[in-house]
Design a protein that fits this description.
single chain
Length: 380
């Protein structure tokens, strides 16, 4: 892999600072911008390198767009490039959610802010529903096994109101064993991958340690697009630890939708609500460090092993399970959020608009929903 002398590491950092500042549209849009800008227009990265980075980002757990940015930084500038590209991409949106978190904590009890999030929360349900639909139709196709895994996780997530990580991993192993069974399967020498899921958090009462442990698991075990982290966060933040209530959680998802950069940056907002600025820093770092490691460590070996049938089958199974969990989470959140006719109407109109107009930007929908919420509350 020869170094392209047409750009410097500084050029790449400036590019990712800009993309992180006004790159709206979620993970699918962001990876599209990178291909357009870095492959087609600037020609800093070859199409082959881009596709390999995208494949690795889809294979590993963590936020898709952030991992692709890290991989592209690695292509010509190795560890330093990967580190600085990842930081440059995430920092702008992190600073934005910190600012929004401060305003939310300071003024969240005011009627006008409650009115804004009344409309926004309903719109978020519509946005997540369409995102789930697109992910399902694109990723699962007509494969009956993948559909079975999808439906199982959707039902389990809806009934239990939490994402069960070992069941998602089990989905990956089911497809692996069905489509590309390993040779050691018959020998019984399987090594369980679930040990870490049963490890106990660090023995301390500190809330920052709890935040660090929970969000490390979020970054290490959540596969799929940015929306894939929503059911996992809901299960921990609302159900297990009860750090936030239902409305605060939906507000956190909304903040992720209205800010540029990776959707997963909502963890910074959640961390801020739970434990202030340090909570935001710890939550963001704990989420992104695993995805950084999952990108830079296998990067040198991915050319050789990335297309192995067993790896592809495992990823297909995990992806189907993760998408099923998203669908189940949409139903759970909808049940608790759409409590009157106006919220149901806002959610349905949001979903219909996004389905009909493919290029409609979510931040515009969120802004419109916020204004509608204000008007409705003023009328009431």
């Amino acid at each position: 892999m020869e170094k392209n002398t047409d750009y410097t590491l500084k050029d790449l950092i400036i590019y990712y600072l800009k993309l992180g500042t006004w790159g709206f549209g979620g993970p699918v849009a962001l990876v599209g911008y990178m291909h357009r800008d870095l492959v087609e227009e600037k020609k800093w990265i070859t199409d082959e390198d881009y596709k390999e980075g995208l494949a690795l980002s889809q294979l590993a757990p963590g936020p898709l767009a952030a991992q692709l940015a890290i991989y592209i930084g690695y292509v010509h500038y190795k560890i330093l490039g990967a580190t600085l590209a990842g930081i440059a991409f995430v920092v702008p949106s992190f600073l934005m959610v910190m600012g929004i978190g401060y305003a939310y904590v300071s003024y969240g009890g005011l009627p006008w802010m409650q009115a804004v999030f009344y409309g926004v929360g309903a719109a978020v349900i519509g946005i997540i529903a369409i995102g789930s639909y697109k992910l399902t139709t694109k990723s699962i196709g007509k494969d009956k096994l993948l559909w079975g895994i999808f439906l199982l996780l959707a039902v389990v997530t809806f009934v239990t109101e939490q994402e069960i990580l070992w069941l998602i991993l089990l989905g990956g192993f089911a497809v692996w064993f069905a489509k590309a069974p390993p040779k050691w399967l018959s020998s019984g020498n399987a090594i369980t991958p679930f040990i870490i899921l049963h490890m106990q958090p660090v023995a301390t009462e500190s809330k920052l340690w709890q935040i660090a442990w929970f969000f490390t698991k979020a970054g290490a075990f959540v596969f799929g697009s940015g929306l894939a982290i929503v059911p996992f966060l809901y299960g921990g933040v609302v159900k297990e630890y009860q750090w936030l209530n239902e409305q605060q959680f939906l507000d956190a998802v909304a903040v992720a939708m209205i800010t540029p950069g990776p959707v997963v940056i909502t963890v910074g907002f959640i961390g801020y609500l739970v434990a202030g600025p340090w909570g935001a820093v710890v939550a963001a770092a704990a989420t992104f460090i695993p995805c950084y490691l999952f990108t830079v460590i296998p990067a040198p070996y991915f050319k050789k092993y990335g297309k192995h049938p067993a790896i592809k089958a495992f990823v297909d199974g995990v992806t189907a399970a993760a998408i099923g969990a998203i669908a189940g989470a949409v139903l759970v959140l909808a049940k608790r959020t759409l409590t009157d006719i106006p919220t149901v109407v806002i959610a349905l109109i949001t979903a219909a608009l996004l389905f009909r107009f493919k290029k409609l930007q979510e931040p515009l929908v969120i802004l419109a929903a916020a204004l509608i919420g204000l008007v409705l509350r003023l009328i009431v």
